Amino acid sequence: MWVRTDQLKNSMEEAEHLCERLGIFVGGRLQCIGNEKQLKTRYGGFYVFTITTSSENEQEVERATVASHLVDGIRAFQRVIDYGAVRVVVPGNIPIGCLPVYLTAFQSNASAAYDEDNCLTKLNDLATYHNHQLKEAIRELKKDYPNTVIVYGDYYRAFQRLFRNAESLGFDGASLQKACCGTDGDYNFNLTEMCGAFGVPICRNPNEHISWDGVHLTQEAYKIMSEWLLSDIVPKLHCPI
C-alpha cells in the first residue's frame, strides 16, 4: 500500500499506522525503503538542530542547552542506580568538531575556526565544557550514592588519542575526517544523501577510515577506542576477581 505523506495530516505517524513498508524520497529520488522499525533503527539516531541567535548570546544559549542535557542525563543514571546498579560508567562526549557531519554543516573559510587537528574549535570547546560540567555532576552524584562506584568514561581523550595517532595505527592520513560511506564535499558527507541511501558508495578499506558514515565511527576506530577505554575504566570499577 502506497500513501503520499502530503495527503496525511500527521504524515509519518499515520504512515506508520497505515503502511507495512515506508519509502522516503528526497528531491524526487528514493533514498531508503523498509518497515518503520528498520528505518528508525538505521536512521533515527541522528538529527541536526540549528539555533540562530545573536553572537553575544551564542555562548549563553549553548551552555543552557548543555545544562538541560546534563540534568536529563544525570536523572537517567540516578534511575539506573535506584534499580540496583552498583557500578556505573558515565560516558563523556567526544570532540564533535572532528566529525564529518559537523565539519560539513559548519564549514568555514576562516582558519581561526579550526584547531591544531583541523577540527572545529567552537564545537570542541562546547564538548569540553559539557564534559567538565558532567564531571562536576558526577562528583555530586557520588555524594548521594556513596556505596555505588561511579566512573567517568573519558571518550574525548580516547578519541583524541585515536585521532592524533591515526596513521601509526593503520588509518589513512588523507581520510581522517572523511566518511567511508558517503558522497560529496571535502568530508565525503552529504546530509541529503547519507550512507544507506541508494547509490551512495562505500570506501574500499573501511578499516583505514575513522568515520564510517560521517556520524558514527568505523568498527576499527571503535575497537581501538574501546581498548583504551577499558584499560582506563576497568581498574576504577573495583570489580571482584
Automatic annotation (TrEMBL):
Gene Ontology molecular-function annotations: hydrolase activity, acting on ester bonds
Q: Which domain of life is it from?
A: Eukaryota
List the InterPro entries hit by this protein, alphabetically.
GDSL, SGNH_hydro_sf
- Supply the alphabetized keyword list: Glycoprotein
Tell me where the signal peptide lies.
none
Protein name listed in UniProt: GDSL esterase/lipase
Q: Which family does it belong to?
A: Belongs to the 'GDSL' lipolytic enzyme family.
Pfam entry (one): Lipase_GDSL
Native organism is Rhododendron simsii
